[in-house]
Amino acid sequence: MLTQALLTLALAINAPPAPSKFEKLARDIETQVQAGKDGITAAWDSDGFLAKVMAGSGDDINNDFKKGFAKGYKSKEGSLGQTIASTVTQGGRFRLMRIHEEGGQTRLLYRLLMPTGGLSYFDLVTTPAGKVVDAYIFTSGELLSETIRRLYLQTAAEASQGLFDKLKGKEQLFLKNLPTLTAMQNANNDKQPAKALELYKGLPEPLRRDRLFLVARLQAAQAVSDDEYLKAIDELRAAFGNDPASDLMAIDGFFLKKKYDLAIEAINRLNTAVGGDAYLVFMRGSMLSATGKGADAKTTFIEASKMEPSLTEPYWALVEMSLNDKKFNETTQWLLAIERETNTRLKDLKNEPTYAAFVKSPHYKKWLAVRPKLSNQ
């Protein structure tokens, strides 16, 4: 009996702890979205979210309007989860990065890799009860509740007589200048970036530090000149210096402008902010490769592959480097790693021009010989 009791105690001590409600929620969302399903809406706290959107509006907005807005929002509240799930079904990849605390709230940080390249992060804000009440979206640089609140105030001001005059400070200023934001966005879409910059310069000073106007200005500046673009990035970062979204927005532009050192700095800051991401390490390797630092790039790609073995991009970068260097033993190594570590299944490469020299080497036969063993694992 004593032995049995000791065995039971030992098993209890060595058993892994039960996942917290936040860990379970985070994994449930990840599993559903990876299967192409909307894993977010069922966990969404609609009433809590709307309370944030409508905070402070009080009696200035009539109840019928509030009820109508809430009804309209709830009819479309699944759009975030549905959009992410749709991206995954088209070839995107969704991954839980970490569970962390910010401002006394537990957050669930996810990475979304787009099917055509590029990435974003979604930091889901939870309630103590284990529901999702908001989302910080890196590509917009703000909480979803802030985005919807502007829509709420805009439509409320149009529907409620006198509301505009009752709004205070920046919210009133924003609504007053909303047509300018629309005009800037239209100018960018019409490939008139200089016009967009002129509109920006005519804004009241507080709005020249507003994220939406700064982002529209950044888009215009990128099309005007390197100096304008770098100035726009500097001012965006000055206004939101601790916000990783600013760095995410800047990386592609730095790359296109061949400002690789600045791109690496932005990648490193973003990587620190998200707690470490193999995809960002891969991006750093790509920048190093573009500057001709092949050895450093190779080391960085290998680092990324070890951080997240199921991520395909570092392996493909290593395959390309090995082909260019005619190190076909390494080509074999990385091609095998792709099939072993990821869900990728390769076709025979003998008809691919890029692999012509590899196919003629003895390493190609070795690769063919080992591949069937991988498929049986």
Structure description:
This protein has 377 residues and is an alpha+beta fold. Among the domains are: 18-163, Nuclear Transport Factor 2, Chain: A; 277-375. Helices cover 62% and strands 9% of the residues. It contains 20 helices and five strands. It has a five-stranded antiparallel beta sheet. Helix 13 (244-256) runs antiparallel to helix 14, helix 14 packs antiparallel against helix 15 and helix 16 (294-307) packs antiparallel against helix 17 (312-324). The longest helix has 16 residues, at 144-159. The radius of gyration is 25 Å and the shape is globular. It starts with a helix and ends with a helix. The relative contact order is 0.06.
Task: Note the topology.
Elements: H1 2-14, H2 21-34, H3 46-53, H4 63-74, H5 79-89, E1 93-102, E2 105-113, E3 119-126, E4 132-137, E5 142-143, H6 144-159, H7 163-166, H8 169-176, H9 178-189, H10 193-201, H11 211-224, H12 226-239, H13 244-256, H14 260-273, H15 278-290, H16 294-307, H17 312-324, H18 328-341, H19 356-360, H20 362-375
Helix pairs in contact: 3-6, 9-10, 9-11, 10-11, 11-12, 12-13, 13-14, 14-15, 15-16, 16-17, 17-18, 18-20
